[in-house]
Specification:
Elements: H1 2-11, H2 23-35, H3 40-53, H4 57-70, H5 77-90, H6 94-107, H7 113-128, H8 131-138, H9 143-156, H10 158-169, H11 177-190, H12 196-205, H13 209-221, H14 228-237, H15 241-252, H16 259-267, H17 272-283, H18 289-301, H19 305-317, H20 322-333, H21 337-350, H22 353-365, H23 369-381, H24 385-397, H25 401-412, H26 417-429
């Protein structure tokens, strides 16, 4: 019987700290229960289990209560008590749930459900102001319970929770990766300035690369200016490209405050890939017109074509109104034919009438036929009526036969009904 019970306990679904049920565990439980010989107790347990799976908490509570009353000696009473408490917790019946878990722990001390019951008690402790349970959990040997206790400590006594998490992360700590990861995540959730120094220490020095990356990500969630300079330094100095990229992403989480630091990375002599990443993050900053000015300055001084294209793409992604004017300026005045073409393509991607008008004006003043060809392609990608009208004008009147033919091809590829009408008229006349 103990072997069967252990198998059932292993296969039963577990509950994570947020209280959600793992679907994979539920499927395993379904398969296990279905494989057993049918009995009245098994059928009753299956019925209650299905109610848990469907989120019918009140019905599940009633059904598990009836199961325990009707089959008090059944091997499934410990898991039934656990899921009874879980159903109660989901209905905010914390006192009743805690009493049910305590009954499980005291009456079935050898059951492997005792650990899960202890973790749930710790999770609910802040709601019940049960500091004794939290303190006991903090010193428990089971790490699942300790981690749940640390989370509850953050909720009940944030200052002590922060201090304990910092101790867990300090160099020389014997805490496991599980506890250290949990401490990092909890510190990130608090967004406390006190967490910045220890997170930086982990990000810079920890031997576990995975923990270093998590610490960097956490620094992005803590909206404190003291993290900005160190994150920039990590981006520029780290030998791990993944750490460097994570630092740039964390910088970008600070939104407009990150602009000057991202610009420094974009201007630096760092690897091209890293500079391009910084430029991409700059393009995603919202409501910061100074970024557009800085991107234009960078384009003017940059020689690497890959960086130039990245800068144009950043302008394309920018939602700042002056970005459209900046692209139009590059399309008409840049000394680099490649930059001009990239700017023209970026204007087409913006898909607004102002950008289409910029392309039309540019076509009318342009002398280079290669650039005019690129503009025709861009007009073909635009869904604006003014773009279709311009293509029609080019197809009818442009001095260049090649460009007229190209305009006709773009019109033919259009889904606009007016395009078909125009093509019909051309066919009739010719």
């Amino acid at each position: 019987m103990k072997t069967v019970l252990l198998t059932l306990q292993v296969l039963l679904i577990t509950v994570v700290s947020t209280g959600t049920v793992r679907a994979q565990g539920l499927e395993k439980l379904n398969r296990f229960v279905q494989s057993q010989a049918p009995s009245a107790a098994a059928s009753a347990f299956r019925e209650a289990r299905d109610l848990i799976g469907n989120g019918e908490w009140a019905k599940a509570e009633a059904r598990f209560n009836r199961f325990i009353a009707e089959f008090p000696k059944d091997r499934d009473v410990p898991p039934a008590l656990y899921w009874l408490a879980y159903a109660m917790k989901q209905q905010n019946k914390f006192q009743e749930a805690d009493a049910t878990l305590l009954r499980l722990i005291e009456q079935y001390s050898s059951s492997q459900w005792v650990t899960d019951a202890g973790a749930m008690r710790v999770e609910m402790a802040p709601r019940l102001k049960n500091t004794q349970v939290i303190e006991q959990g903090v010193t428990a040997t089971n790490e699942e319970i300790r981690l749940a206790a640390l989370q509850s400590l953050f909720e009940a006594r944030p200052e002590r929770g922060t201090a304990m998490a910092i101790d867990i992360l300090k160099a020389g700590s014997s805490s496991s990766r599980l506890m250290r990861e949990g401490a990092i995540e909890l510190l990130a959730d608090t967004e406390s300035r006190e967490a910045v120094p220890i997170l930086l220490e982990v990000a810079q020095k920890d031997s576990d690369v995975r923990l270093r990356r998590k610490a960097v990500e956490a620094l992005g969630e803590i909206q404190d200016s003291s993290a900005l300079e160190p994150l920039k330094a990590l981006a520029l100095q780290s030998n791990d490209i993944f750490i460097a990229r994570a630092a740039l992403e964390a910088l970008a989480e600070h939104e407009s405050a990150a602009g000057p630091f991202l610009i420094e990375v974009a201007r630096s002599s760092a690897a091209v890939e890293l500079r391009m990443e910084a430029i991409e993050q700059l393009g995603e900053l919202e409501n910061d017109p100074t970024v557009v000015d800085e991107l234009m300055k960078l384009i003017a001084s940059e020689k690497d074509l890959r960086i130039q294209r990245a800068l144009v793409e950043a302008l394309e992604e920018s939602e700042v109104p002056k970005a459209q004017a900046a692209l139009a300026e590059l399309a008409s005045k840049s000394s680099s034919i490649e930059v001009r073409r990239s700017a023209i393509e970026a204007l087409a991607e913006r898909e607004d009438e102002a950008s289409a008008q910029s392309l039309i004006q540019l076509y009318d003043t342009e002398k280079d036929e290669r650039v005019k060809s690129t503009i025709i392609e861009a007009l073909g990608e635009s869904e604006q009526k003014v773009a279709l009208r311009k293509l029609t004008e080019i197809a009818l009147r442009d001095p260049s036969v090649r460009l007229r033919k190209q305009a006709l091809e773009e019109i033919a590829d259009s889904d606009d009904p007016d395009a078909y009408k125009f093509l019909e008229e051309v066919l009739k006349k010719n």
